[in-house]
Design a protein that fits this description.
The protein is α+β, with helices and mostly antiparallel strands and 317 residues long. The chain is built from 10 helices and 15 strands. The protein is globular, with a radius of gyration of 19 Å.
């Protein structure tokens, strides 16, 4: 460390825009920028983004906020991302591959509130698999497994081309660092991964859903990466696009509501009042989040998810 001020960059990608903030070492917000992102709705219940459009918006807000804060690139120690739990689909070359009935590859992201997989979600619920114990006994059509089932059944040509599928925040980490690091937050909350077990992926669950080939099409790692971990550093190309340096560390990401829960409840962790606190995170949707040291299985309430907001703690949503 030297005497120069050190900064970190926080990037939040919501439903309609990307935002970036530069924070100094004292936690003070020095600057903030916002840029809209596009959304495509080709049919009722279908909602799609472009990962290229999102990455372009992220680069724009980071460059703008950095310029307004008058921060030199070498002063930025780290960057981290949170995003909606939207699903990004790529081919073997890391290029966008369509998630759309239009067939256009630029629309390669199923937005979190895309509701086309309703019948598939009902099928997952009817399976009665023990994974459902950790989502309140009911599979939401906004989670990723029903969406994968729909894609395999309805976009079979695109399905054959998929070689990487990521939650949006994990895509941003990969695009920034080149590392295929999947957050314990995204996989546990939206992919049916059981982080509290030695083997997180339940092979019989995937087989039961007809998704035995998902690990290959999604490039799934065996283990999720913990919150607070470092995924790597900015690649030379990403550093140039973001107007930062390749010495800038990239943190493991979170889903947006869960990042909010960490911000609201983080100071309570390790204290005596954590069980008396709840975080309400408002946005296009609203989430009520509670942390605990012990798992709480509650019918109709998502979770408990282990380590999805903070290591060693369970969260109900």
């Amino acid at each position: 460390m030297n005497d120069s001020p050190r900064y970190v960059v926080a990037v939040d990608v919501g439903t309609g825009s990307a935002r970036a903030g530069f924070f100094d070492s004292g936690g003070r917000l020095r600057s903030r920028a916002v840029h809209p992102i596009k959304i495509n709705k080709p049919q009722a219940d279908h909602a799609e983004h472009s990962s290229d459009d999102i990455w372009g918006a992220v680069c724009q807000v980071v460059r703008t906020a950095g310029g307004e804060a008058k921060v030199r690139p070498e002063e930025v120690a780290g960057i981290s991302f949170d995003a909606t739990c939207s699903l990004v689909l790529l081919d073997a070359g890391g290029r966008p591959r369509s998630a759309s009935v239009t067939g256009e590859d630029r629309w390669n992201v199923m937005v979190w509130h895309d509701h086309r997989a309703g019948s598939e979600a009902e099928e997952v619920t009817a399976s009665g698999h023990r994974v459902l114990d950790y989502v309140g006994d009911v599979m939401s059509l906004e989670m990723q497994m029903p969406k994968f089932m729909w894609l395999k059944r309805n976009l079979s040509e695109a399905w054959r081309d998929y070689r990487m599928a990521l939650d949006l925040t994990d895509f941003l980490v990969w695009r920034a660092s080149g590392a295929n690091e999947r957050s314990v937050c995204t996989l546990t909350c939206k992919w049916g991964y059981l982080a509290h077990e030695k083997i997180g992926w339940q092979e019989d669950f995937l087989n039961q859903l007809g998704l035995d080939d998902l690990p290959a099409h999604a490039a799934l790692p065996e283990q999720a990466s913990p919150i607070g971990g470092r995924a790597g550093f900015l690649t030379a190309g990403a550093a140039e696009e973001l107007a930062l340096t390749s010495d800038c560390a990239v943190g493991v990401g979170l889903i947006d509501a869960h990042a909010g829960a960490l911000g609201v409840l983080g100071s309570e962790i390790g204290g005596d009042t954590l069980d008396e606190r709840i975080a309400m995170i408002a946005g296009t949707s609203s989430c009520h989040m509670a942390l605990s040291k012990e798992p709480r299985l509650i019918k109709g309430v998502w979770g408990p998810y282990f380590g999805a907001v903070a290591p060693g703690y369970w969260v109900n949503e």
